[in-house]
Amino acid sequence: MHTELVSYLLLAAVAFIAGCMNAVAGGGTFITFPTMMFTGIPAVVANASNSVALFPASLASAWAYRQDFARFEGISMKALAVVSSLGGLVGAALLIYTPERTFSSMVPWLLLIATTIFAFGPKLAPKLRKYVQITPGALLTIQFFISIYGGYFGGAMGIVMLAFFTLFGMSDLNAMNAMKALLAGLINAIAVVLFVVAGKIAWPQTIVMLIAAVIGGYYGARVARNINPLFIRRAIIVISVIVTIVFFAKTWL
């Protein structure tokens, strides 16, 4: 009983921190997903449960950013929402039909991809903008594939969205964070429906994390303007590198 209580307290603390991280700089999945596996939840169920636990936090952050929303030139919010929801649906379906053993073997590589994107994406996007600009149609297409990835795994999904928003010509970070939070919430919300129907959720742990993540997500968005995200990003990169190495070591040893 004592060990179980410690596990729940750990999950709650990690989920609160992840909610704050996602509101300020992203990367919450880097700590919540491995923690769920650490407490004994199988990889596919941990990934699905992680989506359920974190998606309300994205919507809470979007609500906190509600005054910062800005129109994307040439693209309606409805179109982005529809494309994101469809992509999330496809990604979630792919996860449900992925065998547990196969997904477990993919986890280190998914973490490596997500860590690389998180570490280098924000630096590359402004440089690429000098040479590349994407059209509204291209952004919708890209958002569809980002949403598939988000429904399937989702690590660093927000960073990828921010990078392509930059290439599209946006520069207001608060406006981009507002849209990122809303679309991430929609992607995970549609994925959650499939995960629940498929019975892939560890409910007791998920509910504890969901409540903590919502509080963290709202709190993080409220204080984000007063925090230098660079320091948080560096800490997240260090954590994600360590987690990725640990998962590769577990796979190979």
Principal-axes geometry comes out as globular
Please identify the structural class as seen in this structure.
mainly alpha
Distance between the termini: 31 Å
SSE string, helix = H, strand = E?
Answer: HHHHHHHHHH
What is the helix fraction of residues, given as a range?
over 70%
- The overall average pLDDT, rounded, is 82
Q: DSSP helix count?
A: 10
For the report, how would you describe the main beta sheet? Answer: none
Molecular structure report:
The chain is an all-alpha fold and 253 residues long. It has one domain. Helices cover 81% and strands 0% of the residues. It contains 10 helices and no strands. It has helices at 2-24, 29-38, 43-64, 77-96, 100-129, 136-152, 157-168, 173-197, 203-223, 229-252. The longest helix has 30 residues, at 100-129. The protein is globular and about 55 Å long. The two termini are 31 Å apart. The model has no long low-confidence stretch (mean pLDDT 82).
What is the topology?
Blueprint: H1 2-24, H2 29-38, H3 43-64, H4 77-96, H5 100-129, H6 136-152, H7 157-168, H8 173-197, H9 203-223, H10 229-252
Considering the chains and any ligands shown, give keywords for the structure.
253 residues, mainly alpha, 81% helix
Can you summarize this structure?
By secondary structure, the chain is mainly α.
